[in-house]
From TrEMBL:
Gene3D superfamilies: Nucleoside Triphosphate Pyrophosphohydrolase (3.90.79.10). Residues 267-295 are annotated as: Disordered. The keyword Metal-binding applies. CDD domains: NUDIX_AcylCoAdiphos_Nudt19. This is NUDIX hydrolase. It comes from Thermobispora bispora (strain ATCC 19993 / DSM 43833 / CBS 139.67 / JCM 10125 / KCTC 9307 / NBRC 14880 / R51). GO terms for molecular function: hydrolase activity, acting on acid anhydrides, in phosphorus-containing anhydrides; metal ion binding. Residues 25-227 form the Nudix hydrolase domain. SUPFAM superfamilies: Nudix. Keywords: Hydrolase, Magnesium, Manganese, Metal-binding. Its cofactor is Mg(2+); Mn(2+).
Amino acid sequence: MRLPLRGAAGERARDVLAGRAPVVPARDAATVVLLRDDPLETFLLRRKQTLAFAAGAYVFPGGAVDPRDADHAIAWAGPSPAEWAEVLRTDERTARGLVCAAVRETFEESGVLLAGPDTGSVVADTSGDDWEADRRALVDRTLSFAEFLERRRLVLRSDLLKAWAHWITPEVEPRRYDTRFFVAALPAGQRTRDVGGESDGVVWMEPKTALARAAAGEMHLMPPTLRTLTEIAAFETISEVLAHEREIVTIMPPAVEIDGEVVLLIPGPEPGSETGPEAGGEPGPAEGRPAAERP
């Protein structure tokens, strides 16, 4: 897919391509595709129109890594940071920060917390005023995630996450993120809520519906979100999504000039995503394995 860059975006792209403007370093970030069944739906936030990045776009919960996310004091259950480093193809410290950021940002932006009092349980309800006060303190960065978990006597459940994708913002963009995408099931008993902040609306929606609305011009989806929804739309249940074998391939769309116009070249969905398991394919070797064994 070719995505034209026009106006100021096109001019900046030409400057970067010609070496007249520097490439901005990409910040580590994490985002989580929350899923629920019957039918399979994803949770999306609509970013405020006033924001400098992805204004008006529907996105999954997520954000940049806080330096404190790599704190060794964070109580941890499930695959270790070393195991995640292998899956995410990065160093152990970065992997720790990414997984923590995924859990923290999901709580900050949806009220859903992938943590529990022990390795085999998850918090059942996070809707009280005391939980909201802690969530706001995390957003304000007056409370670290390690302090939050210690105060609540909780452990981060890294086994509830599955690595899905790796996108890096194109080099010609003025704001850049090196983002790992994860998928996770909505824990039993928990409910998402509209917590405001950088979003002005939230919705649970079937991936196919979101794609249809985007095609009709009713929703703005950025390329990573569009591709991820296309891939998730191939499945019917959360268990199928979690059992699907993924090879994490880094995607950084290149900018090129074609016939006088600068465009981003966006790759299509993973081969086979259009057919998915409903086409009769055999489940991958992760079928039946606990989530802790397949980050």
